[in-house]
Amino acid sequence: MPATPLAQPPNRRLLKGVAAAALVLAAAMPATVAHAGGASPSGSVSPTAVAPGGRVSLNVTGCGTKTGTASSSAFGDVRLTPGNLEATNLFGSATVSTNAATGTYTVTFECGGSGGQRATASLQVTSGAARGGLGGSVGAMSPGQIALGGTLAAGALGTGIWLLRRRSRLT
């Protein structure tokens, strides 16, 4: 009489899947525990490069307070306000001084009052004036570009008049 196996060998694919899931969970655990334990705040400046007179948005996450400040020699001190009820993000905006010299400036974010947790970010002040008008999307135009634009506009106007006159003759 042949011997019957007491147990079937486990499916190797299933074991590999369980092992991969365990590795993913193990890798995620330290990051989750560190964040829940009050990780240090992180600050950001947007845009990271701006001309004197330009505006920047300031954001700090991970403070756990409802007040904060951002300061830099490029724009001075700015009060930050919470973006939601839990105060997980603090926001603000600043205008870079028109007298700011070209270079890299440190922006220091401070959570709560004096002596609170701190974070830093960099701000690059570039040469040139801040562009106004159409949001800085239009630069200087050359005489050739102006002539081409005028020619195209005149051609479109002439074509429209020609089509209207032709239409009136047909009716």
Textual characterization of the structure:
With 171 residues, the protein is α+β, with helices and mostly antiparallel strands. It is built from 2 helices and 8 strands, in the order αββββββββα. It has helices spanning 12-36, 143-170, and strands spanning 42-46, 49-50, 55-61, 68-72, 76-82, 89-95, 103-111, 118-125. An 8-stranded mixed beta sheet has the order 1-3-6-5-4-7-8-2, with no helix packed on it. Strand 4 (68-72) and strand 5 (76-82) form a beta hairpin. The radius of gyration is 31 Å and the shape is elongated. The termini are far apart. The model is unreliable at 18-37 and 133-137 (pLDDT under 50).
Mean pLDDT: 74
The fraction of residues assigned to DSSP E strands is 25-35%
**Largest sheet features:** 8 strands, mixed
In terms of per-residue confidence, which ranges show pLDDT below 50 for 5 or more consecutive residues? 18-37, 133-137
What is the count of β-strands?
Answer: 8
Strand order of the largest sheet: 1-3-6-5-4-7-8-2
Count of helices? Answer: 2
* Cα distance spanning the termini: 106 Å
Radius of gyration: 31 Å
Q: What is the ordering of alpha helices and beta strands?
A: HEEEEEEEEH
Which structural category fits the helices and strands? alpha+beta
Task: Give helix % range.
Answer: 25-40%
Shape: elongated
Compact summary:
This protein has 171 residues and is of the alpha+beta class.
SSE topology:
Layout: H1 12-36, E1 42-46, E2 49-50, E3 55-61, E4 68-72, E5 76-82, E6 89-95, E7 103-111, E8 118-125, H2 143-170
Parallel strand pairs: 2-8
Antiparallel strand pairs: 1-3, 3-6, 4-5, 4-7, 5-6, 7-8
